[in-house]
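HOLO CASE FILE
Compound: flavin-adenine dinucleotide
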Amino acid sequence: MNRNLTIQEIKKNPNTTVLIIGAGINGIGTFRDLALQGVDCLIIDGSDFCSGASMASSHMLHGGIRYLENGEFRLVREALHERNNLLRNAPHLTYPLPTTIPIFKWFSGLFNAPLKFLGLLNKPAERGAVIIKLGLILYDAYVQGDSPMPRHRFDNREKALDKWPALNPDILFAATYYDGGMYSPERLAMEILLDGEAEGDHARALNYIRAVGAAGDAVLMRDEISGEEFSVTPEILINAGGPWIDIVNDKVNGGSAFIGGTKGSHLIVKHPELREAIGDHEIFFEYLDGRIVLIYPFLQGYVLIGTTDIRIDDPDQASCTEDEIEYILGMVPHIFPSLEVSREHIVFQFSGVRPLPAAEGTTGQISRDHSLEVVEKSDQVPWPILNLVGGKWTSYRAFSEQITNHVLRRLNRSRQESTTRLPIGGGREYPASKDTQKQWIRNQAEKSGISQDRMEELFTRYGTRAEQVAVALTETTDHPLTHLPEYSEGEIGFLVENEIITHLDDFLLRRSKLAWVNQVSHESITELAGIIGELLNWGGGVQKEEVNRTLRILRERHAVKV
Ligand SMILES: Cc1cc2nc3c(=O)[nH]c(=O)nc-3n(C[C@H](O)[C@H](O)[C@H](O)COP(=O)(O)OP(=O)(O)OC[C@H]3O[C@@H](n4cnc5c(N)ncnc54)[C@H](O)[C@@H]3O)c2cc1C
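Model generated. Tokens follow.
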């Protein structure tokens, strides 16, 4: 539904059964699940959807082999099943990701897990071949019979150097196993949200609406676009503020101390030799300080390198510092000694804060599991507050299911639909093989009169939702953008109308991945501001502000050279 209309309706009737504050993946997953069960719910975010921790991920769908040494067996098992669910339910936005661990020792690290379990080891220690082998056997065993991907394998030094000639020649083995990757976590989150909204008028979603306080049994909201304030009166409040959970509670409930966030930064580099060196494999390895880091084959031949893990109190202050850039660039020659990556290769950088539970000790050893922290209704708090602490992108569905079941119990209602095997957005009726995909594209091209090449482009971006996009394109006189010819005016129009684009940067950073892969220019930003501005009735002044805002965000936050 149109953003302004939704706000007008809320002003007329501020009651809702569930209010979710925070539209990262945990809030969005819960929103969709509640919507599917017919529960009246409203989700709001003070910024854009999926713009917090959920936009800062390493793009991995993984069980987290590393967490085994922290004794997090439950989490790993759950995340592995969820990884497989996502590969099945959203095949258009996810893919099996071969992941290779270069190994330099035989036996070290064998006693890490038991020592950590007993609290006798508080820093990472080098992992050798035996411990990695044991971990991978367990990793495979957890999803035996439920994995669409091959089991792990070990290559000896000779074979490994044959496959990856630039690898550090000191290696003994290379272990390869499969995890999953997401092309665009932001589009995936958007499609989950849209699926929730499509369930009916009982499910409403608003971006750029910030929870700023409470008055009686109402939560006070500020519209970040108009500056207007209004209130919402929920029966149950879900605080899905991720790293901002305690700050949200400060505003609505007198505070909490659930979160001990750590910042993680990544760089995306244009470095063809490095990309050739890794091939299509993620290289997952131990760095000098014992932390596990990654070099990841990103979209369009780029390479993602990360990440850091630094305690931070205020998530709004998270940015990629000079020290972090040095640290991340240094990872490459550690594993590929002949390759040097420098600042000139950086095309994009990003930072975010992991919403980890408040805990003492080394950051790498803080639990990555999720938990529900309930603050019950009392004289001081007019609604029960369900705080969604922690969790991985990968396991959002299981966490959302847990929260939804909890809400259903409170409302004395029962579950009507499971999300386990529920396709997401353009993953619905997705043709499985290359041949059936080609056939689908041919059929849709014929039906719509759109060229096959263009239809293929739309299918790659939107999966089977491309059919809806194609219908919209044929309803206008469509033409490619002058400065961004792979997109057309009609396509931008479809996204503005259907995907709640509010600011220009929503499109460049989250509805598309253009800004991440060096595909923006001053000219294309100005052209897009004109098209989106016309659809959203921006006057000339607002258009100019939007261009400036976008340039500022891209340059300052993401180091985009534009
Ligand atoms: C560096 C890094 C790498 C990661 N890599 C991976 C990975 O590869 N794979 C994986 O599975 N997981 C990964 N994770 C973990 C995963 O991304 C997060 O745990 C998950 O995204 C948390 O989602 P969330 O919805 O809880 O929080 P968020 O996504 O942060 O959502 C919280 C939302 O609340 C909003 N908000 C805050 N205050 C207010 C307010 N007052 N009013 C309204 N809205 C408000 C924010 O704008 C934000 O959008 C990574 C995390 C980080 C930081």
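CASE NOTES: The chain has a mean pLDDT of 94. The CA atoms of residues 187 and 514 lie 12 Å apart.
CLOSED: yes
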